[in-house]
Amino acid sequence: MHFGLTATIEDPETCELLERIVQQVSTVVLGKEHATRLSLACLLAQGHLLIEDIPGVGKTTLAHTLAQVLGLGFQRIQFTSDLLPADILGVSIYDREAVTFKFHPGPIFAELILADEVNRATPKAQSALLEAMEEGQVTHEGETRRLPEAFFVIATQNPSHQIGTFPLPESQLDRFLMRVDLGYPGRSAERALLQGSDRRALIHTLEPVLDVARLMALQRQTHEIHASEALLDYLQALLDYSRNAPEFHTGLSPRAGLALLHSAQAWALMAGRTHLLPEDLQAILPAATNHRLRWASNVQGTDSSASAHLLAQVAIP
Is 233 a member of any domain? Predict the structure, then answer.
């Protein structure tokens, strides 16, 4: 069995547009082009993004810059230990003139939400995001309200060993299509950062490359990327190995399989192709699975080594 496909650029216009977005973001977020590409692929696949790293490496800046360049309405919610669900969803206040309660929407009713330091809040506050992320709606006092059609959550998370954090449960982690790490900048990028202007001041100087309508059209185009039978065989082989191998405590769920497929389709679109290659799956596999795979108790390994092990064990058809 073979794929018989080449990596030629079949849609140069879309490829150029998406490359321009990456380069615009990279003028503010220095030295993190791969993380930027993964973040854009996540949004094209209509998923939610979790950025995990220590404070001060540019997590918030990346989220704000993406919103600016993509032309999306932006709201930042600072998660703290005393945050309440009503602080996220909104609250009903009695209107004396109308003799009724009037709902005042919370910050969740924006197109791109930055849930900053999401694991500093209690599980009750964290859970306020679940319905919004899964269903694109929120329910308040028995009434369901739709969120904007283009709705994305970018959450940042501090390492779990830091003081004052509440680890996200597996069910909530699974709601994030991808998890990316930023890490420290390279030496040249950090020198440019030290010598340049304030990065957050630069965000407002960027012109949007897209608007909501064009972004949604690109998302529809993402789901039209062709996946051959051979490619789906490879994807299912990866899923089957994760579920049956004794070194993993739990395997990848059907939702994880869809996350892999949609993320790979977005990666192919960014490369200007109309079909998937195994390289697309391999490129996005760490970001789409490392927060989902768990080693068995008798196996020593890190989150980042789980996807590498999976790729090493499963051959391309």
Answer: yes
* pLDDT tens figures, 268-310: 999 999 999 999 999 999 999 999 888 887 776 667 788 899 9
**This model's pTM is above 0.85:** yes
Domain containing residue 267: CATH number:
3.40.50.300
Closest residue by Cα to residue 45 from 312, 264, 195, 280: 264
- Provide the domain count of the chain: 1
Establish if 106 belongs to a structural domain. yes
Give the structural domain span for 145.
Answer: 12-313
Partner residues linked to 137 by β-bridges: 146
Residue 196 lies in a domain: yes
Residue with tokens 């209690």: 122
